[in-house]
Write a structure and sequence with these properties.
single chain; Udp-n-acetylmuramoylalanyl-d-glutamate--2,6- Diaminopimelate Ligase, Chain: A, domain 1; 3 domains; 4 helices; 12-stranded mixed sheet; alpha/beta; 10-stranded parallel sheet; UDP N-Acetylglucosamine Acyltransferase, domain 1
Length: 365
C-alpha cells in the first residue's frame, strides 16, 4: 500500500487532491477499483469513470479537472508502468527467494546461482550456467553448455537447445524453442542432404520473446537478437538471422535465413521476409507485408510485394475501383465493336461505289 503522494514522488508527478489517499494496487479503466490507480491518455475515456468507482488516476493536466484525486504528468502511460513495477516488486518479495524443486533434474556440473529458482520437472544438462535471481520454470529444458544471465525468466515448458547464450533480464515465454536446427538442406539425386546446423544462438540483455516463437540456430555462426528487442508470440526467426537493438516484431512474422534487421525497427504481424536481405535502422514494415529486397534507413513499406507505404495506399485505393473499371471496359469494348462494324460497312459501300461499270453484273444476263 502506498499513499498517492508517494506514488507521485516516484514518477515525478504533481498531486491534485488528497495526497494521503491510500492506494492498494493498480487497475484498468474497464475494471476500476475503489482503492486502485489507473491511467488515462484520451479525454474520450473520461465518461467511463467516476470518483466513486476509482481511487485515483494518472493523467495529463488537461484532463485532471474531471477527477478529484489525480497525479498529473505529461506521459501517463509511461509513468503508470513505473507504478505497476513498484507494486509488482512487492509481490516478488512475497515469493520464495530461491529453490531447486526436488523433481528437477540438474546435472552435477551445472552452475546454478544460489539465488536462482528451478521449477518442477525442469531439466538442466551438463555445463549449464544460470545467473543470480534467474527463474527456470516448470518443465523447462536447458541443453548442455547453455548460459543464462542474471534476472532472466524462462517460463514453463520452454526449450533451450545446447550452446545457447541468454543475457540478463531476458524473458522467454512458454512454448518458445531456442536453438533448434534451421531449414538447411542440399538437394541431390537421392534426396535432400542435411547441411549440419552447428552454429549457436545469442540473445542479448533485456530481450522478451513471446509464447511459441522459434529461434533457429545458425548453420555455422550465430543467430543473434540484440539488446532491448521485443518479439511477440508465434514468430519464426530462421538460421543466421540477426535482429538489431530495440526492434519490435509482432505475431506470426517469419524471417528467412541470414536476413539482417536493423535497430529500432517496427514489424507488423504476419509480415514475411526473404532470406539474405538487409532492413535498415528505424524502418517500419506494415502487417502482412512481403519483403523481397533490401530496405534503406527509415523505410516505411506495406503490401505484397512490399513497396513504399504511400504508393501501396494508392494501389490499394485503385483496387476498390476495379469493378467500376471493368464495367467501363466492357462498355468501351461494345462501343468499339459497333464502331468497327460501321467502319466495315462504310468501307464496303465506298468500294462498291468506286467499282467500274464493267465489273457490275448484267441483270439481263
Amino acid at each position: 500500500m502506498f499513499k498517492l503522494r508517494e506514488l507521485a514522488d516516484l514518477i515525478g508527478g504533481e498531486v491534485k487532491g488528497n495526497g494521503d489517499l491510500k492506494i492498494t494496487g493498480y487497475c484498468s479503466l474497464d475494471s476500476p477499483q475503489p482503492q486502485g490507480i489507473s491511467y488515462m491518455e484520451k479525454g474520450r475515456d473520461a465518461s467511463k469513470l467516476s470518483d466513486i468507482m476509482l481511487g485515483a488516476l494518472v493523467t495529463t493536466q488537461q484532463l485532471a479537472h474531471n477527477f478529484t484525486d489525480v497525479i498529473m504528468i505529461d506521459n501517463p502511460r509511461l509513468a503508470f508502468i513505473t507504478i505497476m513495477e513498484k507494486f509488482l516488486a512487492l509481490q516478488e518479495h512475497e515469493a520464495p527467494a530461491s529453490y531447486i524443486h526436488e523433481s528437477a533434474v540438474v546435472h552435477e556440473s551445472a552452475q546454478i546461482d544460489e539465488s536462482a529458482l528451478v521449477g518442477a520437472n525442469a531439466v538442466i544438462e551438463a555445463g549449464v550456467v544460470v545467473g543470480a535471481r534467474s527463474e527456470i520454470g516448470a518443465g523447462v529444458f536447458v541443453g548442455r553448455n547453455c548460459k543464462i544471465g542474471d534476472d532472466s525468466v524462462i517460463h514453463p515448458n520452454a526449450t533451450i537447445y545446447h550452446g545457447t547464450e541468454i543475457g540478463d533480464t531476458v524473458v522467454i515465454h512458454s512454448g518458445v524453442v531456442v536453438g533448434s536446427d534451421g531449414l538447411g538442406f542440399v538437394p541431390t539425386k537421392e534426396g535432400h542432404r542435411k547441411f549440419p546446423q552447428v552454429g549457436t544462438v545469442l540473445i542479448e540483455n533485456n530481450v522478451e520473446i513471446g509464447s511459441n516463437s522459434c529461434i533457429d540456430r545458425a548453420a555455422l555462426d550465430q543467430t543473434i537478437i540484440h539488446s532491448g528487442t521485443k518479439i511477440d508470440n508465434l514468430v519464426q526467426l530462421a538460421h543466421g538471422v540477426r535482429i538489431g537493438s530495440n526492434t519490435v516484431i509482432a505475431a506470426q512474422t517469419g524471417i528467412s535465413g541470414s536476413t539482417r534487421v536493423g535497430n529500432w525497427c517496427i514489424i507488423g504481424g504476419q509480415a514475411g521476409f526473404q532470406g539474405h536481405i538487409t532492413i535498415g535502422d528505424q524502418s517500419i514494415v506494415a502487417a502482412q507485408s512481403g519483403v523481397f529486397s533490401d530496405l534503406p534507413f527509415k523505410s516505411k513499406v506495406s503490401g505484397y510485394p512490399a513497396k513504399p507505404h504511400a504508393q501501396s495506399l494508392k494501389v490499394l485505393a485503385l483496387t476498390f475501383k476495379l469493378p467500376e473499371l471493368v464495367e467501363k471496359v466492357k462498355t468501351l469494348e461494345i462501343e468499339l465493336d459497333l464502331m468497327r462494324g460501321e467502319l466495315k460497312g462504310k468501307a464496303k459501300r465506298e468500294r462498291e461505289r468506286k467499282r467500274p461499270a464493267s465489273d457490275i453484273p448484267d441483270a439481263e444476263a
